[in-house]
Amino acid sequence: MSQLEIKTNRLLLQTLNLDHAEAFFRYHSDSVANKYQGWIPEKIEDVYDFIKNRVSPTINLTNTWHQLVIKKNENNVLIGDIGLHFIDIEEKQVEIGFTLDKNYQGKGYATESLMHVIDYLFNSLNKHRIIASIDPENLKSISLVERLGFRKEAHFIKSLFINGEWVDDLVFALLKDEWLEKNYVA
């Protein structure tokens, strides 16, 4: 399976492609809004390189990243993205990461899109466990994953070298059984 498309009430999530590069660059290149990101493109060519060389066009392959863009249904505007790192297909584990344009934060778009992606990973791809790696200072993202039922599993001290400095890393996780128990139906 290669291209993925998930529709929600207000959003369309689809596989990132070169047509999305300019909009993707617009919000990803904001170094203030994306201070917790490990990658901030400096020029549009960085995004083209990212799409061509670092993102797998196919989902569910071990040790690959697949990127979904988040678009508003009403006007087709690209407002964010969700990265899916298929850590190990045999072990059924996935890491998620997400970025939302600062102009669209606080409106429930991240929650809505993540609920549907999590539901897809657990129910369509039969994944066992989803993790999220978050900077301890990124309180909005921590609050979001906790609302979705993730629990903190680890706090690694100065374990990641991002933007020229060593930073801490919090790891949150959610099991399929926990998701189904909470009855989070997308």
Give the C-level CATH assignment: Alpha Beta
CATH architecture: 3-Layer(aba) Sandwich
Poorly predicted tracts of residues = none
Secondary-structure content class? alpha+beta
Biggest sheet strand line-up: 1-2-3-4-5-6-8-7
Explain this structure.
This protein is α+β, with helices and mostly antiparallel strands. The chain contains five helices and eight strands. It has a single domain (5-182), classed as Aminopeptidase (3-Layer(aba) Sandwich). It has helices at 21-28, 44-53, 109-124, 139-147, 176-182; strands at 5-7, 11-15, 64-72, 78-88, 93-100, 129-134, 151-162, 165-175. Strands 1-2-3-4-5-6-8-7 form an eight-stranded mixed β-sheet, sandwiched between helices. A hairpin with a 5-residue loop joins strand 3 and strand 4. The longest helix has 16 residues, at 109-124.
In brief:
The chain has five helices and eight strands. It is α+β, with helices and mostly antiparallel strands.
SSE blueprint:
Layout: E1 5-7, E2 11-15, H1 21-28, H2 44-53, E3 64-72, E4 78-88, E5 93-100, H3 109-124, E6 129-134, H4 139-147, E7 151-162, E8 165-175, H5 176-182
Helix pairs in contact: 1-2
